[in-house]
Amino acid sequence: MKRIILIFILILTISFTVYSLTGKEVMERVDNRETGSSRHALMGMDLVDSEGNVRARTLEVWSIKYNKGEDLDKIVMEFQKPDSIENTRFLQVENKRRDDDKWIYLPALGRVRRIASNQGDQSFVGSDFTYDDMDSRDVEEDEHKLLKDDKYNGYECWVVESIPKKIQNSQYSKRISWITKKHLVPVKVEMYDKKKNELLKVLKVKKEIKKIDGIWTPVYTVMENVQSNHSTRLYVKGNEKRLFLEYNKKISPKRFTQRFLKTGR
Length: 265
What we know:
Blueprint: H1 2-19, H2 23-32, E1 38-48, E2 54-67, E3 72-81, E4 89-93, E5 101-106, E6 111-114, H3 131-134, E7 142-152, E8 155-164, E9 174-180, E10 186-192, E11 199-205, E12 209-212, E13 215-218, E14 220-225, E15 230-236, E16 245-247, H4 258-263
Antiparallel strand pairs: 1-2, 1-15, 1-16, 2-3, 3-4, 4-5, 5-6, 7-8, 8-9, 9-10, 10-11, 11-14, 12-13, 14-15
Protein name: Outer membrane lipoprotein-sorting protein
Keywords: Lipoprotein
Pfam families: LolA_like (PF17131)
């Protein structure tokens, strides 16, 4: 009987050792999850100040996977409402092992402006997202540590701490992410500032993660700056019956150019 118990404990120990994930492995799974060959969505962006006043915006978003081998995307956004931001357009081209390329077209200036890498911590069109928040970040840029298993909004999650290997290449001292085990989607991300290593912003998925065209999709997120008490809601427009979001549809590559940014054609 003792021998059987020892063998059973040994099997459990080996199983735990084999199947226990590391923080890096969790983040690699997130990075490798299915996101489709293209995406097209109509979205809302609400800027909410410290007194609860809301400035609502509408934008259209397109993305395509232009390099399947390296899993790299091109993304373009076009703001439609209100008049003060209408026809503002943004283009981002993901790169491997270097900063993404980004350009923005501001109608008031009448020209396309490149976003330099040292401008990454600046606000994206007045929101609580910065240009770096829009950036893709390679798993290898950070040291990842699995802190614990946890439950958030009913989802079973892995909690992973990510600390940049080169602090000068990140606007945050660290990020702590709650990753759903079912969908491999970050449903909560805490971002800490570099001055005092204090909590600066929190990104949260507020509504149910939906399966659209076979792809798990967060459709409503909020980025809150806890230090300024300002937040930005970003969500797919539509209703419970139909959301204005589709994957894997053909999109012309001409849309992902600086010419499109300037002309809208």
